[in-house]
Q: What sequence folds into this?
């Protein structure tokens, strides 16, 4: 009887997993964390506000260089300038300047206006992002990617936004997307292929709970 | 030899030039007199001055020479879609739905103008209940004027970071709101109420954040400003998805919006002059954007869209507000060092403004001010105002088109409303009238983009002139002014006659009047566009190789028009180069 019950519940679990593809266990991440943009859309602003709502302190730069990432907490004391924004809110008591980041969160979303303001082209932004992701993977920095812009910002295959997705999502350790961004199942396919935990949320508000769980806040 | 004889004077001059160049390097855009007015090196705590966006000029009914209300929109972008279209009125069956599009101001597509692309593949899957009848309107980047003479002009003003909501939870952006306003409103007030309510209900933002519309009808002009409420908003929250405010410009006043919020203290009880979200103060308090304990009254702009600094402290980047007010009301002697947020919401102009005055104001380059883009050697050899990048002028080179919407009382709406359109930079362009009653716009207005030269596109005709005017600007602009006088002046002068003919037809048949207006205006637009192609050809020949070719006399007078100060500056730099140690030769 017990064996049958175990079998029944196991089967039910497998079935449920099949019914809700792409809803995975939220992965665990550690501080300190850097937030940044892949494509210079305003979605990184939403990401930062989510972290603030979740009371998670972070460092932020819209266009960090590899050297800034390597510099760790404090981002090498770089200051904001036109088309370049830096914000350091990490608790420096716990994580003094220079502490290597344990997590990098990329807000994926291409904006011609945003890239233009930062003096970037799609090609240079893509190359920059790839370099950062590559460094994170080599140095065991947890890469977390979010897509909050929805279907309207996705564009057709080969679009600026799709290139940013390709530059980050397949290499992420965790993915969160609003359902509107994944109507065509693009992120589900990436997650399945690369075996990445994917969480789908109705609204950006849902990301608050995800990051709380992720950082154990 | 000449240089050697003049050596002492020229060397001294060279030192001065170098000192000036060094100062310019350290303080770009700074000029004499600015230091004494107070320079603020750090504007990081405020919204970034957006140098490339739109300017709205506003003229109240009693501030214009003909009793019309007027507003302008300089559609400043450089990569945007410039095409225009006409949307006819339509009746809708009960239960119909209105599709909602997320319309990006900046994106263009190789497969066609944005409106065709959006209708073909821009379906967001979201729709709102349709109204029984939607009104006809003309649109460009936004809806500009509908059949009821409700008109709109736009300027992006930005908001504080925490309120930006670019998530898909926000269903309406500013372009979509303008279209809905056009489709559904009979007066400016109704348009504002409709846009505000829809934005609160369905959420505002996505492509846009803080935005401003001048909303006008023949009797009133209002400044409407709207903000998103942050990316964590959801429709299920039961809270409004936008916060907005509107203030009426006094009838005998003029105002301007240069990408900065203009509404200060708000009195919603004064319904003749204010409208807005009921929660505008409580939400600001909740978001810690206003502190009631401060003892200071609530200020809409200081809470939701603070733009610190002045024309002087921003090194000319925020000079448009002061510049406009100073030009129209010099008697007020407004100081360019006054913080912009302390400048008045509107002013009574020293003299009433005609439609031609307003056209000329959209061409303003800040000449004669400390921000003058051709002062000294800023404009290069031919005093071209487009070289000097620091002053943010009302008229900039990256404008797609400028619309000037004119709403007039005493005429049927079809005849009273006029949208004047000037493609490309205003200084080299020509305003062309489109009456509200037109049932189509000129074909050449519906064609073209920045990336492929197109002789069928009106915009390219004006770019063709603008491009050739840049070569020897100070001479070529005089040729352009002559053409403007003939064609734009002619169009302004013909309005009375067109009005008369249209009214006579309207008395018999409004449809006949609309037909007349459509044909007359399209014919006129076609003539002006053809004239600009021809002007471009003439400029190409005349200023080819800086030659000053005279086609009639078959002569050439090379070397004219270089400014004297430029010649001297070149000599000074030559002296400096002669006296400087030469860099070691490369091995």
A:
């Amino acid at each position: 009887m017990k064996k049958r019950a175990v079998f029944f519940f196991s089967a039910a679990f497998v079935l449920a997993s099949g019914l809700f593809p792409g809803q995975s266990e939220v992965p665990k991440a550690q501080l300190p964390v850097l937030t940044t943009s892949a494509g210079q859309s305003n979605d990184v602003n939403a990401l930062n506000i989510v972290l603030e709502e979740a009371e998670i302190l972070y460092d932020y730069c819209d266009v960090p260089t590899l050297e800034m990432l390597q510099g760790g907490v404090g981002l090498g004391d770089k200051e904001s300038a036109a088309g370049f924004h830096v914000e350091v809110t990490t608790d420096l008591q716990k994580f003094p300047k220079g502490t290597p980041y344990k997590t990098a969160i990329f807000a994926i979303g291409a904006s011609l206006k945003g890239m233009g303001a930062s003096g970037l082209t799609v090609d240079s932004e893509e190359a920059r992002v790839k370099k950062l992701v590559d460094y994170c993977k080599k140095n065991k920095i947890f890469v977390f990617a979010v897509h909050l812009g929805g279907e309207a910002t996705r564009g057709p295959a080969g679009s600026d936004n799709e290139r940013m997705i390709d530059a980050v999502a397949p290499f992420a350790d965790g993915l969160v997307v609003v359902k509107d961004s994944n109507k065509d199942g693009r992120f589900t396919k990436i997650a399945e292929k690369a075996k990445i935990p994917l969480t789908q949320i109705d609204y950006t508000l849902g990301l608050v709970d995800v990051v709380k769980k992720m950082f154990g806040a | 030899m000449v240089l050697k004889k003049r050596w002492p004077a020229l060397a001294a001059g060279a030192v001065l030039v170098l000192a000036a160049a060094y100062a310019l390097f350290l303080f770009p855009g700074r000029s004499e007199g600015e230091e004494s007015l107070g320079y603020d090196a750090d504007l990081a705590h405020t919204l970034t001055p957006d140098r490339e966006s739109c300017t709205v000029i506003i003229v109240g009914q009693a501030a214009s020479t003909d009793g019309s209300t007027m507003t302008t929109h300089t559609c400043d972008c450089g990569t945007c879609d410039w095409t225009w279209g006409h949307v006819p009125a339509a009746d809708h069956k009960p239960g119909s739905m209105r599709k909602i599009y997320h319309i990006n101001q900046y994106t263009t597509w190789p497969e066609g103008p944005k409106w065709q692309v959006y209708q073909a593949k821009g379906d967001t899957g979201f729709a709102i209940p349709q109204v029984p009848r939607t009104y006809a309107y003309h649109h460009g980047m936004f809806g500009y004027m509908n059949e009821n003479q409700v008109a709109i002009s736009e300027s992006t003003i930005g908001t504080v970071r925490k309120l930006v909501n670019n998530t898909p939870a926000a269903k309406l952006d500013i372009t979509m709101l303008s279209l809905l306003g056009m489709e559904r409103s009979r007066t400016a007030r109704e348009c504002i109420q409709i846009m505000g309510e829809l934005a609160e209900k369905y959420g505002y933002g996505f492509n846009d954040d803080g935005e401003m519309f001048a909303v006008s009808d023949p009797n009133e002009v209002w400044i409407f400003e709207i903000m998103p409420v942050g990316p964590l908003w959801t429709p299920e929250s039961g809270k409004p998805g936008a916060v907005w405010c509107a203030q009426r410009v006094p009838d005998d006043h003029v105002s301007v919006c240069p990408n900065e919020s203009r509404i200060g203290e708000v009195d919603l009880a004064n319904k003749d002059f204010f409208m807005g979200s009921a929660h505008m103060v409580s939400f600001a308090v909740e978001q810690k954007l206003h502190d009631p304990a401060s003892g200071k009254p609530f200020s809409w702009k200081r809470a939701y869209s603070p733009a610190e600094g002045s024309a002087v402290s921003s090194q000319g980047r925020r000079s448009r507000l002061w510049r406009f007010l100073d030009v129209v009301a010099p008697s007020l002697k407004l100081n360019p060092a006054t913080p912009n947020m302390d400048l008045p919401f509107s002013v009574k102009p020293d003299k009433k403004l005609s439609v031609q005055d307003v056209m000329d104001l959209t061409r303003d380059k800040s000449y004669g001010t400390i921000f003058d883009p051709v002062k000294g050697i800023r404009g290069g050899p031919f005093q071209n105002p487009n070289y000097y990048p620091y002053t943010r002028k009302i008229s900039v080179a990256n404008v797609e088109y400028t619309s000037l919407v004119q709403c007039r009382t005493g005429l049927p709406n079809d005849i009273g409303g006029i949208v004047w359109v000037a493609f490309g930079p205003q200084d080299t362009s020509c305003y062309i009238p489109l009456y509200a009653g037109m049932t189509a716009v000129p074909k050449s207005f519906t064609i073209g983009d920045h990336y492929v030269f197109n002789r069928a596109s009106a915009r390219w005709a004006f770019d063709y002139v603008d491009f050739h005017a840049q070569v020897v600007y100070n001479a070529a602009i005089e040729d352009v002014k002559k053409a403007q006088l003939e064609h734009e002046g002619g169009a302004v002068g013909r309005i009375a006659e067109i009005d008369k003919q249209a009214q006579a037809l309207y008395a018999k048949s409004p449809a006949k009047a609309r037909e007349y207006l459509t044909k007359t205006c399209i014919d006129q637009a076609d003539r002006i566009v053809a004239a600009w192609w021809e002007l471009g050809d003439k400029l190409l020949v005349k200023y080819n190789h800086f030659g000053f070719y005279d086609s009639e006399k078959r002569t050439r007078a090379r070397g004219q028009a270089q400014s004297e100060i430029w010649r001297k500056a070149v000599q000074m730099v030559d002296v400096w180069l002669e006296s400087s140690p030469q860099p070691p030769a490369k091995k």
